[in-house]
C-alpha cells in the first residue's frame, strides 16, 4: 500500500474557497500538496514536480479543464499522471468528454470530504499497483535479457569448446595419418628411381641377349612367348612411370595433410591463403572423384588474385574452406542427382573460388556454386548453431556456425551468404591481411 506522506497531489483551481477546502482535509490526511490557479501554472508545476495525481477544475478562465487535460496528456512527461476532474455540473456529456480526453474520474461540488478521499485513494492505489507491475515487468525483462545473454555466452562457449575439441581431434588424426603414411611413402618414393634404373639395366641386358643370341634354346623361346616379352619390354617403362606418379600423389597428399592440420602452431602467423585453399582441395579430391563416378560432373575453377601473405590462424581458415566446399559439393551432388533423370539438358556442377586483395589491405574470398540456391528463410538461420538442412545423421549443423566464429570473432572479418532459389550460392569472406587492420572497416 502507498504511503500518503510520499504522495504529491496538484490542485488546479482558480477559486480560493475550493482550494482551501481541499487543502484542509487532504493535508490532514497526510498528503503533500501543490497549488496552481491557472492552466499555464499547472503545466509548469506538473512538469517540474511530477505529482502522483492532479485534481483539475473544469471551469477556469482562459484555458478550461478539458483543454488543460488534453495538453497534459499530449506531454510525455505528464501523460501518465492520473487526472480527476472537479465540477459543479453533473452533465453526462461533459463526463464522457472528460473521460475520453484521459481523465480517470470526477468529483462534484459541493465537495464531500469522505467521497473525495475515497476516490483519490482508489486511483492512487491503482497507480501504485500499476507502478509496481511496470517495475516488475521491467525487472523481469531485465532478468530475461540477462538470462538470454547468459545463454548466448554459453552457446558461444560451447561452440568454442566444440571447435577446439574438433580442431584438436582433427589435427591429431591428420598428423597421425600423415606420420604413418609418410615413412612408407618416403621409402617407396625414395627407391622408385633406383628400381627404374635397375629394371632399365635388366631390360638393356635382355636386349643385348636378343642381339647376340637371336635364336636361344627352345625352352627360352617358349617362356618368352608365354610372357609376351616384347609387350612386357614396351609396357614396363609406362608402368614404372605410373607408379612414380602415384607415389608423388601420395607424397603430395601427406604434405597437404600436414599443412592443413598445422599441428603445434599457436597464435596468428603469416600464411598464403592460396596454399591453404589448394591443400583443402587436395584433401577433398576424393569427393570430386566420387561425384564423377556417380555421373555428377563438378568443375572446380580457381580465379586467384595476387598471392599475398596474410596474418591469420591458418589451420582454422582451412577448416572454414573445408566446411564451405563440402557444403557446395553436397548441394551439387544432391541437385545433380535429382535432375539427372530429367529429359532436359542438365549443366555440369561448378564451384568457383575467387580471391582478391583490396588496396586497403583486406582480403576477399568468394566460394560460389551453381547449385539449387537457398531460400531467405533458410539463409537467415545458416550461421545458427545446430541448424542443418541435411538428413538426420548427415550433418551436425555446426560447420557454418563455427566458420562464423572463426571469421568474425577470431579474425575480425565478415562472412555472408548471397543466394536465392535456382540462382546458386556464394559465400563472401573478408578478413584483414594484418590484424592491426581489423579496427578499420573495409569500404
Which key terms come to mind for this protein?
alpha/beta, 5-stranded parallel β-sheet, 5-stranded mixed β-sheet, 12 helices, 12 strands
Write the layout of secondary structure elements.
Layout (H helix, E strand, L loop, with lengths): L7 E5 L3 H13 L3 E5 L2 H11 L3 E5 L7 H10 L8 E5 L4 H10 L3 E4 L4 H100 L5 H10 L1 H33 L7 E4 H11 L1 H9 L4 E6 L5 E4 L1 H26 L9 E9 L4 E8 L6 H4 L19 H12 L3 E6 L5 E8 L11
Parallel strand pairs: 1-2, 1-3, 3-4, 4-5, 7-9
Antiparallel strand pairs: 6-8, 9-10, 10-12, 11-12
Helix pairs in contact: 2-3, 5-7, 6-7, 7-8, 8-10, 10-12
Structure description:
The chain is of the alpha/beta class and 443 residues long. It is 56% helix and 16% strand. The chain has helices at 16-28, 39-49, 65-74, 92-101, 113-212, 218-227, 229-261, 273-283, 285-293, 314-339, 376-379, 399-410, and strands at 8-12, 32-36, 53-57, 83-87, 105-108, 269-272, 298-303, 309-312, 349-357, 362-369, 414-419, 425-432. It is rod-shaped, with a radius of gyration of 42 Å. It starts with 7 loop residues before the first strand and ends in an 11-residue tail after the last strand. 23% of the residues are buried.
Amino acid at each position: 500500500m502507498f504511503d500518503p506522506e510520499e504522495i504529491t497531489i496538484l490542485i488546479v483551481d482558480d477559486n480560493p474557497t475550493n482550494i482551501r477546502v481541499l487543502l484542509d482535509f487532504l493535508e490532514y490526511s497526510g498528503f503533500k500538496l501543490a497549488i496552481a490557479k491557472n492552466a499555464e501554472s499547472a503545466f509548469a508545476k506538473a512538469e517540474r514536480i511530477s505529482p502522483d495525481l492532479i485534481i483539475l477544475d473544469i471551469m477556469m478562465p482562459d484555458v478550461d479543464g478539458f483543454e488543460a487535460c488534453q495538453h497534459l496528456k499530449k506531454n510525455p512527461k505528464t501523460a501518465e499522471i492520473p487526472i480527476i476532474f472537479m465540477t459543479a455540473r453533473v452533465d453526462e456529456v461533459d463526463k464522457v468528454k472528460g473521460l475520453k480526453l484521459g481523465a480517470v474520474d470526477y468529483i462534484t461540488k459541493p465537495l464531500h470530504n469522505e467521497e473525495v478521499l475515497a476516490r483519490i485513494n482508489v486511483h492512487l492505489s491503482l497507480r501504485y499497483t500499476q507502478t509496481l507491475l511496470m517495475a516488475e515487468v521491467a525487472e523481469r525483462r531485465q532478468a530475461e535479457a540477462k538470462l538470454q545473454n547468459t545463454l548466448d555466452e554459453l552457446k558461444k562457449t560451447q561452440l568454442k569448446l566444440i571447435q577446439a575439441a574438433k580442431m584438436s581431434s582433427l589435427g591429431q588424426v591428420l598428423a597421425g595419418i600423415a606420420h604413418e603414411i609418410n615413412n612408407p611413402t618416403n621409402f617407396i618414393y625414395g627407391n622408385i628411381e633406383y628400381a627404374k634404373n635397375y629394371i632399365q639395366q635388366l631390360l638393356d641386358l635382355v636386349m643385348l641377349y636378343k642381339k647376340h643370341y637371336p635364336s636361344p634354346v627352345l625352352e627360352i623361346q617358349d617362356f618368352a612367348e608365354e610372357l609376351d616379352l616384347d609387350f612386357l619390354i614396351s609396357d614396363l617403362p609406362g608402368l614404372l612411370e605410373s607408379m612414380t606418379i602415384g607415389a608423388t600423389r601420395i607424397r603430395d597428399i601427406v604434405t597437404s595433410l600436414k599443412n592443413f592440420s598445422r599441428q603445434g602452431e599457436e597464435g596468428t602467423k603469416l600464411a598464403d591463403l592460396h596454399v591453404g585453399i589448394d591443400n583443402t582441395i587436395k584433401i577433398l579430391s576424393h569427393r570430386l572423384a566420387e561425384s564423377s563416378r556417380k555421373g555428377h560432373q563438378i568443375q572446380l575453377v580457381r580465379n586467384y588474385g595476387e598471392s599475398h601473405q596474410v596474418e591469420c590462424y591458418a589451420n582454422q581458415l582451412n577448416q572454414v574452406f573445408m566446411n564451405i566446399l563440402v557444403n557446395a559439393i553436397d548441394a551439387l551432388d544432391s541437385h545433380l542427382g535429382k535432375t539427372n533423370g530429367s529429359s532436359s539438358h542438365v549443366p555440369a556442377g561448378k564451384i568457383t573460388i575467387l580471391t582478391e586483395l583490396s588496396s586497403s589491405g583486406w582480403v576477399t574470398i568468394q566460394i560460389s556454386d551453381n547449385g539449387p540456391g537457398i531460400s531467405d528463410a533458410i539463409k537467415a538461420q545458416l550461421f545458427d548453431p545446430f541448424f542443418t538442412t541435411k538428413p538426420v545423421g548427415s550433418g551436425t549443423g555446426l560447420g557454418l556456425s563455427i566458420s562464423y566464429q572463426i571469421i568474425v570473432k577470431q579474425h575480425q572479418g565478415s562472412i555472408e551468404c548471397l543466394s536465392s532459389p535456382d540462382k546458386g550460392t556464394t559465400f563472401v569472406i573478408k578478413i584483414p591481411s594484418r590484424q592491426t587492420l581489423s579496427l578499420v572497416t573495409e569500404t
